[in-house]
Design brief:
Radius of gyration: 24 Å
Helix content: 25-40%
Distance between the termini: 40 Å
Strand content: 15-25%
Strand order of the largest sheet: 1-2-3-4-5-6
Amino acid sequence: MRPPPPLTLQCVPSRAWRGGCTGVGAAAGLALAGWLAAQQEWALPAQVGLAGALALVGVMLGRRAAGPWHAVALRWDGRDWHVDDVPGGLQVMLDFGRWLLLLRHRPRAGGGKRWLALSFAREAGGQRALRAALYSRPPEATPDLQPHVRAPDRATD
């Protein structure tokens, strides 16, 4: 089996993913504010101020967790994945057809993991090529297949 050919794509993160992470962050901030307000008997203006501040902190943390908000250069060179020219591993975490959630590891470049949520408006060649590269065997696991040609057995007269 041959490895997939090299691939270069400009990927725009999913708006639904970004909005969902932002909404979850805001909800978590409001829940924390509600819990704190229930523990302390503060006046209503103090509770509203606390809820606003914690919701804003939750939104900022949700935006950070959502990953990049700009287009990402995704490249497969036949051996390694490169996200914005930083090499590392790429792992499929969720695959919902049009939506992909990928986790990017950077073993050689220090630093943490990075989430990439990608969406595709319709079936495209780039999506097919990306899936072929994502789901293929790593090059180390692919044996070097050389066709073994055997001469046909000849009957001697």
